[in-house]
Design a protein that fits this description.
The structure holds two protein chains of two kinds. Chain A is mainly β. Helices cover about 0% and strands about 50% of the residues of chain A. In chain A, the strands form two sheets. In chain A, strands 2, 4, 5, 6, 9, 10 and 11 form a seven-stranded mixed beta sheet that branches. A four-stranded antiparallel beta sheet of chain A has the order 1-3-8-7, with no helix packed on it. In chain A, a hairpin with a 6-residue loop joins β4 and β5. Chain B is an all-beta fold. Classes of the chains: A mainly beta, B mainly beta. At the A-B interface, β5 and β10 of A face β6, β10 and β11 of B.
């Protein structure tokens, strides 16, 4: 079975640009979550979507947005990029949404570099 | 809000010796607790999770963790380290719709 897939693998942008990251969950999983992992730190929760609705949001500015499509894939959008947005962006999927007791399966991540 | 502290940023052990990675947490009520491992250039992998069942949780690859409410701890252990265990380990606490990761502990295994 295919695991969680993310695209692109790497991305280089300049300050002020916009970026879209994509995630495909494991087949049958209806929940997708996004995390930001800055070098040398643990991942930080950005969003969770379940059945195409936002179910959780971390402490990130409104420049960050996401959506989930009818096939349960998801996009993370970041506007007006800052140097501090440089990070590994991780996507995780789970079967359902039960306050995070469901096991989350992580993708390999998208490495975003902002110059 | 919940939080998690991993007490060691780096742990170094010899192959075949025990591993202890320490994690303390704070939580308003009964949390869910997890340990994840991250190998270089690979995604995060769940080692084990605690969700208010047995306090001693067994995970994959010989790892286990014990939930101690009185000490607010969830330390990860393994009796005998293998070279393949070298990686970054994250302790995670979860409440409601928020999952908080610790800063990570880098485990080095010497031959």
């Amino acid at each position: 079975d295919a695991g969680v897939t993310q695209s692109p693998t790497h991305l280089i942008k300049t300050r002020g640009q916009h970026v879209t990251l994509r995630c495909s969950p494991i087949s049958g999983h209806k929940s997708v979550s996004w995390y930001q992992q800055v070098l040398g730190q643990g991942p930080q929760f950005i969003f969770q979507y379940y059945e195409k609705e936002e179910r959780g949001r971390g402490n990130f500015p409104d420049r960050f947005s996401a959506r989930q499509f009818p096939n349960y894939s998801s996009e993370l959008n970041v506007n007006a990029l800052l140097l501090g947005d440089s990070a590994l962006y991780l996507c995780a999927s789970s079967l359902g949404w039960t306050g995070y007791t469901d096991t989350q399966y992580f993708g390999p991540g998208t490495r975003l570099t902002v110059l | 809000a919940q939080s998690v502290t991993q007490l060691d940023s780096h742990v170094s052990v010899s192959e075949g010796t025990p591993v202890l990675l320490r994690c303390n947490y704070s939580s308003s009520y009964s949390p869910s607790l997890f340990w994840y491992v991250q190998h270089p250039n690979k995604g995060l992998q769940l080692l084990l999770k605690y969700t208010s069942a047995a306090t001693l949780v067994k995970g994959i690859n010989g790892f286990e963790a014990e939930f101690k409410k009185s000490e607010t701890s969830f330390h990860l252990t393994k009796p005998s380290a293998h070279m393949s265990d070298a990686a970054e380990y994250f302790c995670v606490v979860s409440e409601d719709n928020d999952m908080r990761f610790g800063a990570g502990t880098r485990l080095t295994v010497k031959p």
